[in-house]
Amino acid sequence: FKYYAERPCLGARLRLDGGRLGPYRWLTFNEVYRQARRLAAGLRAQLRGAPGALYDGKLRHFVGVFSPYC
Which of 13, 38, 35, 39 is nearest to 26 (CA)? Predict the structure, then answer.
């Protein structure tokens, strides 16, 4: 990971006025990793105190993510 941390990982283009596409805005591997960790922490906070299921002898929570862009 340390070799690629500052390299482009995930890019998106904004639509400009008139429907044209602008330049790519890239997130680095490190930025994507940090955002994924924040999302996971937020989900854990929301699930705190929620009923879970026993899995391998431990209480676990399972989350499904739906996206039309998969």
Answer: 13
Contact 59, 53 (CB under 8 A): yes
Cα–Cα distance measured from residue 65 to residue 36, given in angstroms and rounded to the nearest whole number? 13
- With a cut of 50, which residues of the chain have pLDDT below it? none
Q: pTM for this structure?
A: 0.73
Residue that the structure tokens 């070799």 belong to: 3
Q: Distances from the Cα of 70 to the Cαs of 12, 22, 25, 51, in angstroms?
A: 15, 23, 20, 28
Q: Label each residue of 15-45 as H, E or C.
A: ECHHHCEEEEEEEEHHHHHHHHHHHHHHHHH
E strand or H helix at 47, and its extent? helix 29-47
Query: CA-to-CA distance for 9 and 19, rounded, in angstroms?
Result: 25
